[in-house]
Structures are given as C-alpha cells and as structure tokens.
Give the backbone structure.
Amino acid sequence: MSVKARIKWLRMTPRKVRIIANEVRGKDVQVAIDFLTFCKKSAARPILKLVKSAVANADQKGTLDPDTLYVSEILVDSGPTMKRWMPRARGSATPILKRSSKVSLTLSER
C-alpha cells in the first residue's frame, strides 16, 4: 500500500530541488523529517511540508501505520517557465527564465 502527495508550481528550479530530493529518497519518514528540518537549503522547506502532508494522508486513510513508512519514490520534474526580459546595452534585451518545479512523493510501508 502506498500514499502519494505532490506539489505543483513550486517556484524553485528543479536542479536545486533535486539535490534535496536525492538525499531524502529511500529514507524512513522520521529520518527524512529530521534531515529536512535541520537542512540549510531553501528547497528543504517545501519538501518537508510535502512529506508531512503525505504522512497526514496516510494517517487519514487509516490503513497505514505512519511509523513504518519510508520515502519510496520522489520525482522532481520541471514545471512551467515564466519568461521575462531584461534591458541591456544599446537597446537590446536578454531573456530571463524563471523556472518552476513539480514534485511527486510516494510513501510505502516496509
């Protein structure tokens, strides 16, 4: 049995979020929460919120014990990109890409 949760439109680049996602993958839920609580990367806060949400979903289902859960799968994909322009010298412009992420999390029982 597994439980899923996801974030859409996370305004951080997928490259930065994947660093934290790779650290959490495969760990027990309590170990992952402890790691994310004390991690200094800014991407740790939304992933911590996502893990807690997935644990709450498991608790709400009632069939899963939150103490036996682990992070079986966490995927970080690129979301929509906002495109902006920055004025440069001699009337030209440079594109600015404001990237976003989609994070999917699956918790399973051991």
Notes: The first strand starts at residue 2 and ends at 10. Helices lie at 14-24, 29-38, 44-61. The chain has a mean pLDDT of 95. Residues 27 and 66 are 13 Å apart (CA to CA).
